[in-house]
Amino acid sequence: MRDRSEADFERYVEQRSARLVRTAYLLCRDWATAEDLVQTALARAWLVWRRVGDDPDPYVYRILTNTHASWWRRRWRGEVPTLELPERATGGNPYADLGTRDALRAALAALPAKQRAVVVLRYFEDLSDETIAGIVGCSVPTVRSQASRALAKLRLNPAAIAAMETGSRL
Amino acid sequence: MTEHDLRELLERDSQDGPHRGVTVADVGRRVRRIRRRRVQVLGSLTAAAAAVVMAAWLPSAGTAPAPAGVWTGELAQPTPTRTISLAPLHSSAYERGGTRETFSAVWAPEVRKVGFWITCEPAAHVLIWVNGELVDNGPCEVGPRPPARVAGGIPVRAGERNEFAVALIPETVAGATAKGAEWAAEALSRTAPYPLRWRVEVVDDSVCQSRHVAVEAGSGKIIQFDCELD
């Protein structure tokens, strides 16, 4: 007979993995990396599954955001500086050749990792500020200030302004 | 952009990806990978710990008086101490016993005393000469650390060339009692060269009140030598 926790875990993976991959994608903007992140987060959750409790989501989200942050930092440290900057294909507005949605994606991607995590958990996962604070590892007021800063940045972003001017509703 | 716009963007943006999702089998493979990695890390940590633990196994700091010239290995200090880390002055490895292995060196004038850490086999007896004088003579000691002969506080000629010689002979030839320079020379002459792996490390022991040594497991190479000044 199979262990009950094993069956619980399998059910959790089946029910939640698709949504987790979408969340991970919004964090990292790459589908392959998103799947990798979710596999790692779920694998780590399984290793402590008995201690995770009845609601594994906060724990899994915490591993997801922490793993993403650590991978991001590692990639940044691994960058190789070049002597010459590559030639820009377009001058002026860097969003000119992008569609509105692509430009907004780029704007979201430009947010600092913590702000992006707060935005994704708040506006995509609809988690409470208290839960987000536990996941990201900061206070509730910090979550609120990070969210409002992120929104302010997006409102000032040329792509967001263009979207509003053209009346595009994404 | 409103919060509503943002929710819509996030919802739509993450809908149309080419992702196939994550299966339980994928997660199972990742779990095995993480476990393998943890085992590897544990292995590395164990090796590192083995090396560092040896530091605490310097000749016993017990109540018995330490023989002259032998490091006491006193690690506990009643007050905070000033510690400096020193690189070994000399190190070399050998593959035969029964022969007098020599080396010489000129070090900075500050080096007035040296210490020897000789990694050897338990059945060996170690003889150390400095400038022709037998300064240490005793068995390769077996303790909680890997077998070694440790001798410290040995004076050298500051700022001048010093000649060193070390020889290992079988314990069966040496016998149980400590003997003098003539006996050492005679015992060595009676010993034919034989295969034996050993290593000698020399450290600056001029100002150390106590020492903390980390030795690489296996090779006996000193990876850290901390000298406490107070």
| Class computed from helices, strands and strand pairing of chain A | mainly alpha
**What is the H/E order of chain B?**
HHEEEEEEEEHHEEE
Total beta-strand segments of chain B: 11
**Assembly type of the shown chains?**
heterodimer
Please report the number of helical segments of chain B.
Answer: 4
How is this structure best described in words?
- The complex is a heterodimer of chains A (170) and B (230).
- Chain A has 2 domains: 6-74, Rna Polymerase Sigma Factor, Chain: A; 98-165, Arc Repressor Mutant, subunit A, CATH 1.10.10.10.
- In chain A, 72% of the residues lie in helices and 0% in strands.
- Chain A is an all-alpha fold and 170 residues long.
- The N and C termini of chain A lie far apart (50 Å).
- Chain A is globular and about 55 Å long.
- In chain B, β5 (124-130) and β6 (133-139) form a beta hairpin.
- Chain B starts with a helix and ends with a strand.
- Chain B has a 4-stranded antiparallel sheet, with no helix packed on it. Chain B has a 4-stranded antiparallel sheet with strand order 3-8-5-6.
- Chain B has helices at residues 3-13, 24-53, 171-174, 181-189, and strands at 83-85, 90-97, 101-106, 113-119, 124-130, 133-139, 148-155, 161-170, 194-204, 210-215, 222-228.
- Mean pLDDT of chain B is 77; it is low at 52-79.
- Chain B has 4 helices and 11 strands; from the N terminus they run ααββββββββααβββ.
- Chain B is an alpha+beta fold and 230 residues long.
- The A-B interface holds A 9-10, 13-14, 17-18, 20-23, 25-26, 31, 34-35, 38-40, 42-44, 46-47, 101, 104-105, 108, 119-120, 123-124, 151, 154-155, 160, 163-164, 169-170 and B 1, 3, 5-15, 17-24, 26-27, 29-31, 33-35.
Short account of what is shown:
The complex is a heterodimer of chains A (170) and B (230). Chain A is an all-alpha fold.
Could you list some keywords that capture this structure?
heterodimer; A: Rna Polymerase Sigma Factor, Chain: A; 2 domains; 9 helices; 72% helix; B: 230 residues; alpha+beta; 4-stranded antiparallel beta sheet; 35% strand
